[in-house]
Design brief:
Number of domains: 1
Helix content: 25-40%
CATH topology: Rossmann fold
Distance between the termini: 28 Å
Membrane topology: Peripheral membrane protein
CATH class: Alpha Beta
Number of strands: 10
Strand content: 25-35%
Family: Belongs to the ABC transporter superfamily.
Order of helices and strands: EEEHEEHEHHHHEHEHEEHH
CATH architecture: 3-Layer(aba) Sandwich
Catalytic activity: a quaternary ammonium(out) + ATP + H2O = a quaternary ammonium(in) + ADP + phosphate + H(+)
Shape: globular
Structural class: alpha/beta
Oligomer: single chain
Strand order of the largest sheet: 6-7-8-3-9-10
Number of helices: 10
Organism: Staphylococcus aureus
Radius of gyration: 18 Å
EC number: 7.6.2.9
Length: 235
């Protein structure tokens, strides 16, 4: 379980990007953080893997405070997918996929096996493993970005608007793929979006944020039936 307790991030000028949020995320849940620009959703996400350090409050993973963990080791054990994809252009697709397993000192046989398993999961041919990112379409590259986040058997996957730059058809296909992968693998996915339709399609629960605060944290059905206020109703 991932537990967020009274989490706050204050930037210079006393601006509270995240303001005293608390919520529990069960193992294997798909959670979507949604809000307008500046709502604090990405800041909250990036405090989970300590890309941003919290000012106050705490985050616990299975009862262990993330501040007690080495930040580099923490990030290697949490998958992270961003809109810019971030594949290394000078590395093959296989080398990109097994980047974290390589850092974790996996054997060549283990890395090769994992790369083949993962490329199969996203319905791309094994021959793509020897290609370079520039030889793939944007949608294909983002598929690789998703499975790279799963390569070292990470239990928690953070996704920061990963499909925002893609065309609607490719985005819809990748949404289906991500939901299928999450159900099949039983991982905890935490997904940031500004698109309510995307959040409803993907998430078990949606965390709606505004001005750094949680406005409502509930299932899509309950949010649609019982919006907490006009802000939620108008999303």
């Amino acid at each position: 379980m991932l537990s967020i307790k009274h989490l706050t991030k204050i930037y210079s000028g006393n601006k509270k990007a995240v303001d005293d949020i608390s919520l529990d995320i069960q193992s294997g849940e798909f959670i979507a953080f949604i809000g307008t620009s500046g709502s604090g959703k990405t800041t909250a996400l990036r405090m989970i893997n300590r890309m941003i350090e919290a000012t106050e409050g705490q985050i616990e993973i299975d009862g262990k405070d993330v501040r007690s963990m080495n930040p580099v080791e923490l990030r290697r054990n949490i998958g992270y997918v961003i809109q810019q994809i971030g594949l290394m252009p000078h590395m093959t697709i296989k080398e990109n996929i097994v980047l974290v397993p390589k850092l974790l000192k996996w054997t060549k046989e283990e890395k090769d096996k994992r790369a083949k398993e993962l490329i199969k999961l996203v319905d791309l041919p094994e021959s793509f493993l020897e290609r370079y990112p520039a030889e793939l379409s944007g949608g294909q590259q983002q598929r690789i970005g998703v499975v790279r986040a799963l390569a070292a058997e990470q239990d928690i996957i953070l996704m920061d608007e990963p499909f925002g730059a893609l065309d609607p058809i490719t985005r819809d296909t990748l949404q289906d793929l991500v939901k299928t992968l999450q159900r099949k693998l039983g991982k905890t996915f935490i997904f940031v979006t500004h698109d309510m339709d995307e959040a409803i399609k993907l998430a078990d629960k949606i965390c709606i944020m505004s001005e750094g605060k949680v406005v409502q944290f509930d299932t899509p059905d309950n949010i649609l039936r019982h919006p907490a206020n006009d802000f939620v109703r108008d999303l």
